[in-house]
Amino acid sequence: MTGFFNNLKKFFSPPQDSSSNFLTLKVKCGRCGEEIEVKVRKSTDISRIYEENQEGPSGATYFLRKEVLGKKCNNLIYATIYFGPYFNVVSKEISGGEFLD
Asked: I want to staple 82 with a disulfide (CB 3.0 to 4.6 A). Which of 56, 68, 74, 88 is the partner?
């Protein structure tokens, strides 16, 4: 019976290294200067680029389009980032702010 409970505990326990599933994006608002840190989940926020409808720079495998809103003002920051196969940044664009990293 203890085997059943051990398996059940493994099922409901969080993954051991959940930090590897996240990327951190740091931006600065172009209007008020607020520095904003955003956590991006690799499994849900980042999309895969498929060969048949290739968009973005060559070598890009994944992309992220993110709207960021700070706490100080209502300025929306739009970020588009293209990643390679190991989530290395291939190209990035931003409007309404600037990247800090």
From this structure: 56
pLDDT at 60: 86
Q: Structural domain of residue 95, as residue ranges?
A: 20-99
pTM of the complete model: 0.75
Number of domains within the chain: 1
Closest CA to 89 of 66, 62, 53, 71: 62
Is residue 13 in some structural domain?
A: no
Answer whether 96's CB lies under 8 Å from 78's CB.
yes
Task: Read off the tokens for 26.
Answer: 């740091």
Domain assignment present for residue 14? The answer is: no
**Mean pLDDT estimate for the chain:** 85
Strands 22-29 and 35-41 turn out to be antiparallel
Reported in sequence order, the residue ranges of the chain that DSSP labels E, i.e. its strands, are 22-29, 35-41, 47-48, 62-69, 76-83, 89-95, 97-99
